[in-house]
Amino acid sequence: MAAYLNDVDDADDAAGAAFSSESESESDADSCDDCDFADYDGDVMSHGAVPSDKASCSYKSRKCPNPRALKRNGRVHTLCEYHRARQNEHQRKSDRKHKDTKHARQLMKQCGESNNAAHNHHHNHADVTDDIKPYPIMTTHIAASNASLPSNAPEGVLYGILHKDLSFREAMELNEALRAVTASPGLISVKIYYPLLACVLVWYCVTVASSQDTPDPTSSDGINGTSVACPRIRKAWDRQTDVEKATYIHALQLSMDQGLYSKFMSIHQDAVSNRQAHGTCVFLFWHRQFLVGFENMLRSLDPPRTSCLTLPYYDYVQHNLDYVNQRCTTIESCSPILRDLGGSTQAIRSTANIGGYTYPQFACVNASVASHFCADSQRSCSGCIPRGPWHSTFFNPDVNFNRVKRAVLPTGSSIAAVTSAIEFSVHNSVHSMLSGVMGNLFISPVEPVFYSHHTTIDLLHTIYHRCRVQPFVTGLTESSASDPRVFQGCSIPQTPNGGVTRNSSVFMQESGLRNNSLMRFFDGLPTTYGGLTDSTQLGQHSYSYDMGGLVGDLYTKCDAAGLGLPEVEERRRLTSGMRHVVRPIASADGNTFLGWRRAVFKRAQAQRIEDSDREMEKMMVMMYANCLPGNVTDYSPEFKAMWGIEGVVAPSKRLLDAIQDGSDTIKISNWTALNQRYFGCGGAFPNDK
């Protein structure tokens, strides 16, 4: 059915043309003020103000019909644009006719018996409304919505649902308009109409109308909340179903079309907000609140379809392992999420101004969700996002499990120290690796992958809390809240109070705006940083994670992850009081990697080396430097200047330099043989072999 959606736009234009011709004949003499005109921007008509110059009105008509009945691609159109579409109507119909047969075959394959029943129904020449009778849930929903059922209601329902922008009531209103255009089944060819209608009705009953029998997963305003029926469980993009992926992309596109997406970028770009968000003790907490607000916004856009949506995390720890095992070569070939969100090859060159920055040196990707991007609430639509060359960029060791574990679980550290370790290693390395707009400290939320990257960072915060806070801190009392493992304040220059404590308010505002129009998406969230320490204790906004692979292993075993605990101990930890979903490592590569870690740990014990994790990290850095296609490199000077880290060297590059100059050599005896046994390459420098 998804393949068909591209062609529905043709029908949309045809409908508009018919409306236009009908209304123009009524009153050519009416002034522009009599029609609810819109500002014209390129090929897009967005519902807005009447043109100030009446002479600029190309078309005149009487009062426009309900504009929501002509909603298309998330934007509202008027008769003015549809009049223009009439010129291309005949060509569009001809093009559509050639596509119908192919799409009909696809739909018949997808819908099976439902299609056959609908097809037979068509040949029996029964009334179209009879198609609804086998679906009592749907008829109940129609009655509950107080919507009268026109004689040819299904085509309106079909037309509206396919657009994913109209509610059922709006679809019924659109149906009335369709009746005035044609007596045939909608604007869709008969040979594809009935199979498609069967698919839509089945989909509607299962995913939409059935929601009438279950508790509403969101609050009364459709924005916030959670319940047992719709818990917030964030999963890796790789574990999302095709339907979940399509829903997430659909929500991103709607948020861009409606101007909400760019407003979240404005929060991140605001100077005061950004000063709290980066390089401080509240880096993790600030972004946790930011992500929940963004998630709430996406959930509100198209209920009930988007009501249970959660942010997917980018499992680059697992993808990095695929790279080590040479299952793939570049970050794009290793990461399904990068490909599914448009990749880096379908692009144009653009000098569009995005938040005060231009990126003429980067490819501006206009595939998938990126084609919907508008930098300034629909006033400046570049229709593309600047991205680095993902198709030729390699993973670096800073997102390997060894480095991630050392950043999240250093020995005896406070939350402030862990926050810094995560931000200045894993976090910065991914921003640098993805490049393009992700390399910008202020406007990186332009990139949709930003939200999945930071969801991964939030997952690492969750792992820290599980391993360092929960075993030692029971309940959030006054004394426990002051425990440096739970929260630790810091000074922040040029902020309202000069610093933050656990009682400080989370500061978020849209850049350049006095009144934050997004605050409704943050309603009900803790207002202070101290209330954001545990993702499962956020009231109606509480959420958990579905973890698997290496990050799941780190969550369950903490410091002992990959160190060869007895099997019975591992099983006990796996089943003791979990709030999150943890799946065991199932891949052969994951088990091989853990086998390597256990072998190194065993040898370190025999040599009385205490910090075996450090030795593993050094051995893996040598693998990246001498066995894999990429190089272990530092951040670029431009990246360092943007992020204010001019004196900082990327962790893995610093470690490689220390190995090379002899200041921190690998202490594990015969370490190259261990690498060779598990990965097929020793990792020694060429002159050391």
UniProtKB/TrEMBL annotation:
Keywords carried by this UniProt record: Copper, Metal-binding
InterPro entries membership: Di-copper_centre_dom_sf, Tyrosinase/Hemocyanin, Tyrosinase_Cu-bd
Pfam family, one: Tyrosinase
Keyword Metal-binding assigned: yes
Domain Tyrosinase copper-binding: 278-295
Comp. bias intervals (Acidic residues): 23-34
Sample GO molecular function, one term: metal ion binding
Entry superkingdom: Eukaryota
Chain positions covered by the region annotation Disordered: 1-34, 51-70
Biased composition regions of type Basic residues, renumbered to the chain: 60-70
PANTHER family listed in its UniProt record: TYROSINASE FAMILY MEMBER (PTHR11474), TYROSINASE-LIKE PROTEIN TYR-1-RELATED (PTHR11474:SF126)
Name recorded for this polypeptide: Tyrosinase copper-binding domain-containing protein
Species in which this protein is naturally found: Aphanomyces astaci
